[in-house]
Write a structure and sequence with these properties.
Length: about 260
């Protein structure tokens, strides 16, 4: 999934607001010898079309290419409840879902009276979360929780009230799936907030927690940065392998090309 956007849509007080900056959309799967844990479920194609996004690959099809049957997945982490992360909940009929309790309070509480805060949520998907809660399939946990050996979740807030990040132990060390705590590496590098924000101070403070939990900046993975495709090898079309070290040579080529296009 990706979308053509301008820098002014992504960054507050952007110096070059009309310059293009593509927004990519990712979901993740953590695969070990004995199980697969899915992190977020992508975007419903109909909602993607309505919001002007180009649908590239269903996460269910992507999982199948990796040998993971969505119907058999038993653990699914929801980093927050924006529409681009909840698109395929019903494709995981056996899964127990995990989400911050603060996010559920946020999406069902008085902040949703304000159009600014509800604009990235879809009412039918929030209703689906309530249904999963009443079916005993949604665990609403505290700010930090251990999901499995080597997999923990940590509240950062900022982008929304219940935004969390995921810390994962891999063969190359501790990796942080920053989800929408970082849409782009640029936020982290420049210390600036993304434009869709609930609490800007929490968003900036989240950068420090990401750094504390990751083994290095090379172990941090944003949720929407096209630079990922230049840094990491393709496992298949539109599927990246992220448990290997990034290749910064390829990223420099992409950045140089983008700068030339902007000029």
């Amino acid at each position: 999934m990706n979308a053509s956007r301008k820098r002014g849509q992504n960054f507050i007080r952007e110096a070059d607001p009309e310059a293009p900056l593509v927004l990519d959309f990712y979901s993740w799967v953590l695969i070990s010898d004995d199980r697969a844990i899915v992190v977020d479920t992508g975007m419903d194609p109909a909602k993607a079309a309505r919001h002007g996004h180009t649908h590239l690959l269903s996460p269910v099809d992507g999982l199948a290419q990796l040998g993971v049957d969505a119907a058999l997945v038993d653990t699914l982490i929801l980093t927050h409840a924006h529409y681009d992360h909840l698109g395929y909940l019903d494709a995981f009929p056996r899964a127990r879902f995990y989400m911050q309790a603060e996010e559920m309070a946020y999406v069902t509480g008085p902040w949703m009276e304000k159009p600014w805060f509800r604009r990235a949520y879809e009412p039918d998907e929030i209703a689906r979360l309530v249904t999963l809660l009443h079916a005993d399939r949604l665990t609403l946990h505290g700010r930090e929780a251990q999901i499995a050996d080597g997999v923990s979740v940590h509240w950062v807030g900022g982008h929304c009230a219940g935004q969390e990040i995921v810390r994962v132990r891999t063969a190359r060390g501790w990796v942080v799936l920053a989800s929408d705590a970082l849409h782009y590496y640029e936020e982290y590098e420049r210390g600036v907030p993304f434009a869709v924000v609930f609490n800007a101070s929490d968003m900036i403070a989240g950068h420090d927690l990401i750094r504390a939990l990751a083994d290095s900046d090379d172990h941090v993975l944003p949720a929407h940065d096209p630079r990922l495709a230049a840094l990491y090898p393709a496992e298949a079309e539109n599927i990246l392998r992220l448990d290997v070290a990034p290749d910064h040579t390829g990223a420099r080529k992409i950045l140089h090309s983008s700068a030339a296009q902007v000029v």
